[in-house]
Write a structure and sequence with these properties.
Layout: H1 4-11, H2 21-26, H3 32-39, H4 41-49, E1 62-63, E2 71-72, E3 77-78, H5 80-93, E4 97-102, E5 108-112, H6 113-129, E6 137-141, H7 146-157, E7 161-164, H8 171-181, E8 185-189, E9 191-194, E10 197-200, H9 202-209, E11 219-223, E12 237-239, H10 240-246, E13 256-257, E14 261-267, E15 275-280, H11 282-295, E16 304-307, H12 314-326, E17 330-334, H13 345-352, E18 357-360, H14 362-371, H15 373-377, E19 386-390, H16 396-406, E20 413-416, E21 450-453, E22 465-470, E23 480-481, H17 485-493, E24 500-508, E25 514-519, E26 523-526, E27 529-532, H18 533-541, E28 546-556, E29 560-569, H19 571-575, H20 580-594, E30 603-606, H21 620-627, H22 643-653
Bound molecules: adenosine-5'-monophosphate-propyl ester (PRX).
Length: 658
């Protein structure tokens, strides 16, 4: 969590940006939405749900009798993919563009709703042909190409459950997730384009399946993207394009119960084992579409929406693959990195497609700030009218830069707080309604009850800080942790009785607006991506050099937090008087290989001891002080109070990595 000094700075922010009269007059969300939701919360959610197409209407909105296991709209039946595609085509929107795809090398593709539906129908038939049945799990490990969205929609269409694994994860991380979900089929690609070159994916799938590690997998469906060489096993590998060319083109979307599992998405927790967050159909789609429409002020006929998130993260699920399609939006998807071929790439794309709504992460904004506003000002971004931020707290400086340079000093910014677990946006201003305040996510959305609580679970009230909690169930809430109901109860529902504990610290300012202060547990947030300290520590101690490791998230100007590791070497290794830089390089590569490049520590410090309490718990707080280069806090609970002197002394001479 941020230190007290920073908290005070945040709550003295006095700049307000009220919506313009014109924006407010045309906004989708009106101020009475709050009152409406407050007067009858469940009726409000039922009304939102009824904007979807139900094959069989629901009669009960929420069943919370078996809390914390919720059922929303449970006796209703729907098809998620029908809601995202068929119904728009039936409503004469078949010719509307659903996806503008921009490949990193500059290739492009356009899919209308009609064309996207045709592809999804075929892909659904391919999955059926490969033996996928409702409820079966399908792993998706793909670059950010249209087939990724088609694959997700196809899995949903047949009532199966996808588990998208971010393409930056290693073969081992992929294997772990496939095993946990017992995926039957994997959809992947030969590779994708990143940073100006073809980056292979299929070899990681081969690695994950090697030595019979994933016996549940019967087929690997491979999209041809980069045409690079791939190893091929005829007994398991099949080409997407060959299958798509042979299957039936018609597929009727069958209804499934509202609580049909839709996807599992793994996210880091406080242990070494990622949690498979489970989301289901009706409630998830209800909140994804309601928030997408109201928070981004989507005028589906005229807007061009672009969310820069990869489908490997929850944002790429709710605000690329589902919410926008459920709302018949026209959206842009981009395969590559923002700096390829140069830092103008995103703005070139935004100008080319006349993007009106842009949703991205503070890390990206800070990277552009570093490059200088001239890079952006080269492009005509006058079409942009709403800006969104997600994944980590946005500092007021970056917020103001975003508004001025990208938003032409007029576009409202929505700072959206939510999590993999919440499934959709929970706390955010509403454009056209809320006076925006740089750096604050501000208020729970209509229909959402979130509060800042103290240690005892009491509401703290304006001007005070504590823990963020969601005090009433919400439609897109996680339904559990795959295969581990006890961990679900323990992690989220035991800190405060009957209330969802989010794991974030937060504070109200004097107006009662919420400011997010970062995680209060051992979860780091690097570039808006969640990483577990324990998971990286386990990877480090699995290396033959390392005896013990402690990992902390240290403040980083660009990425929000960065991974910093403190390692004790094994005696035999230490005696070899290894060059510290070599050790550090070797260990950083090792973590990248074990977990994925995103988990690679920024710095690794070789130390002789780690600060521990008498009960043996590593005091990460003290290591964070050292990593962030400030005076070390209270050491009185340490078993050996001299340890920190030795570590701090070491730091002043320790080598720093790139
Ligand atoms: O700490 C909060 C931070 O990201 C965490 C959730 O991470 P993940 O499940 O990966 O989902 C990220 C995309 C929704 C939260 O516990 N976080 C997310 N959005 C914000 C945020 N912190 C501050 N402000 C936000 N707008």
């Amino acid at each position: 969590m941020s230190n007290d000094h920073e908290i005070e700075n945040l709550s003295t922010e006095t700049r307000h940006f009220p919506p313009s009269a014109e924006f407010a007059a045309n906004a989708i969300a009106k101020p009475d939405l709050y009152e409406k939701a407050k007067s009858d919360r469940l009726a409000f959610w039922a009304e939102q749900a009824n904007k979807l197409h139900w094959h069989k209407p629901f009669t009960e909105t929420l069943d919370w009798s078996n809390a914390p296991f919720a059922r929303w709209f449970h006796d209703g039946e729907l098809n998620v993919s029908y809601n995202c595609l068929d119904r728009h085509v039936e409503n004469d929107l078949g010719k509307r563009v659903a996806l503008f795809f921009e490949g990193e090398p500059g290739d492009t593709a356009v899919y209308t709703y009609q064309q996207l539906l045709e592809e999804v129908k075929k892909a659904a038939n391919v999955l059926i042909k490969l033996g996928v049945k409702p409820g079966d799990r399908v792993a998706i490990y793909m670059p950010m190409i249209p087939e990724a969205v088609i694959a997700m929609q196809a899995v949903a269409r047949i009532g199966a459950v996808h588990s998208v694994v971010f393409g930056g994860f290693s073969a081992d991380s992929l294997a772990q997730r496939i095993q946990d979900a017992e995926a039957k089929v994997i959809i992947t690609a030969d590779g994708g384009y990143r940073k100006g070159r073809a980056s292979a994916l299929k070899p990681n799938v081969d690695g994950a399946l090697a030595d019979g590690k994933c016996p549940s997998v019967s087929k690997v469906l491979v999209v041809e993207r980069t045409k690079q060489e791939v190893a091929w096993d005829d007994s398991i590998d099949v080409w997407w394009h060959e299958m798509m060319a042979t299957v039936d083109t018609e597929h009727v979307a069958e209804p499934f119960p509202a609580e049909q599992p839709l996807f599992i998405l793994y996210t880091s927790g406080t242990t070494g084992k990622p949690k498979g967050i489970l989301h289901t159909s009706g409630g998830y789609l209800t909140q994804a579409s309601y928030t997408h429409k109201n928070v981004f002020d989507l005028h589906d006929k005229t807007d061009v929406y672009w969310c820069t998130a990869d489908i490997g993260w929850i944002t790429g699920h709710s605000y690329v693959a589902y919410g926008p399609l459920a709302n018949a939006a026209t959206q842009v998807i981009y395969e590559g990195t923002p700096d390829t071929p140069d830092w103008g790439r995103w703005w070139d794309i935004a100008a080319k497609y006349n993007v009106t709504i842009l949703y991205t992460a503070p890390t990206a904004i800070r990277s552009f700030m570093k490059m200088g506003r001239e890079v952006v000002q080269h492009y005509d971004l006058s079409s942009i009218r709403v800006l969104g931020s997600v994944g980590e707290p946005i500092n007021p400086e970056a917020w103001v830069w975003y508004r001025e340079v990208i938003g032409g000093n007029k576009a409202p910014i929505v700072d959206t707080w939510w999590q993999t677990e919440t499934g959709a946006i929970m706390i955010s201003p509403l454009p056209g309604v809320t006076d925006a305040k740089p750096g604050s996510a501000q208020v729970p959305l209509p229909g959402i009850d979130a509060k800042v609580l103290d240690d005892e679970g009491k509401h703290v009230g304006p001007g005070h800080g504590g823990y963020l909690a969601v005090t009433e169930p919400w439609p897109s809430m996680l339904r559990g942790i795959w295969g581990d109901p006890e961990r679900f109860k323990e992690t989220y529902w035991s800190r405060f009785e009957g209330t969802y504990f989010a794991g974030d610290g937060a504070k109200y300012d004097d107006d009662g607006d919420i400011w997010l202060l970062g995680r209060v547990d051992d979860v780091m947030n690097v570039s808006g991506h969640r990483l577990s300290t324990t998971e990286i520590e386990s990877a480090l101690v699995a290396h033959p050099y390392v005896a013990e490791a402690a990992v902390v998230g240290a403040k980083d100007e660009t990425t929000g937090q960065a991974v910093v590791a403190f390692c004790i070497m094994k005696r035999s290794q230490a005696e070899k008087t290894m060059n510290e830089l070599d050790v550090s390089k070797e260990l950083r590569e090792h973590v990248a290989k074990e977990i994925g490049p995103i988990a690679k520590p920024r710095q690794i410090f070789v130390v002789n001891e780690l600060p521990k309490t008498r009960s043996g718990k590593i005091m990460r707080r003290l290591l964070r002080d050292v990593a962030e280069d400030r005076p070390v806090g209270d050491v009185t609970t340490l078993a050996d109070t001299s340890v920190m002197d030795s570590i701090s002394g070491k730091m002043s001479t320790a080598p720093s990595e790139d």
